[in-house]
Amino acid sequence: MPEVTCINCAKSIVVQPWRVKTFKFCCRSCWAIYTNRGVPKSESCKAKLSAFMKTRIGKLGHNYRTGFTKRADGYIINNAASKHEHRRVMEEHICRALCSDEIVHHIDGNKSNNLIENLELTTREKHLGITYLTTCEVTK
Fold first, then answer.
1. pLDDT at position 40 over 70
2. Confidence band, pLDDT 50/70/90 cuts, at residue 89
3. Where are the domains of the chain?
């Protein structure tokens, strides 16, 4: 029977003659590493994939993102911190993490304006009152 060499690890494999033209990998893990999909079966395959994936962290990772993203509703997301920029600015200003019931209100209503002078820390109840009053003034 003919032998074929794995294009990922260069291991020699004996295959059926009719598979010589299409056979490229010795195992599923080699295929996963080569195609960057990654689902290994055996322990040796897991070790190969683990060594490969260690080179794909940080800036080399496929989902590495930096900078800011503006959402459709107007809020700016800090991709490095994975949170809303106005909440990050307020946390930095008061030197502690915000509680879940604390709301950062944009005084001028512009969700993209994240200057500390434009941000106000309120509770949910107070924020509902503020937004209710401003929407009533706009509709009159």
1. no
2. very high
3. 3-60, 68-139
